[in-house]
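Handoff note, outgoing to incoming analyst
You'll be picking up this chain. Sequence as last confirmed:
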Amino acid sequence: QVQLVESGGGLAQAGGSLRLSCAASVRTFSTSAMGWFRRVPGKEREFVAAISRSGSTYYADSVKGRFTISRDNAKNTVYLQMNSLKPEDTAVYYCAADRRTYYSGIDFREKEYDYWGQGTQVTVSS
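Most recent structure output, in case you need it:
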């Protein structure tokens, strides 16, 4: 059982930055691609960014150029650096682990992720 714990959410002003962290409980963290998703109340959860086992990255168009996903396999941690924040980035952010062990690619589809953190709230004021 993989446990994922997000941290780093909070309140930021528009144009500001926040860094989210997601710590995984297992040493097999390095065998999984990882992703960040977010949900606004009343809307579907949406893809934000993903990183492969080898470090390749993929972003939603809405965050491209502003957010950066990275991972530190030695610390079993994935990060989401969020810069130039906008009020529309306000959401609960979730990290997730791809269900396909040793999968070499990246995926934006929520159905391919089977372990989820509890979420961390990010609020951006205008």
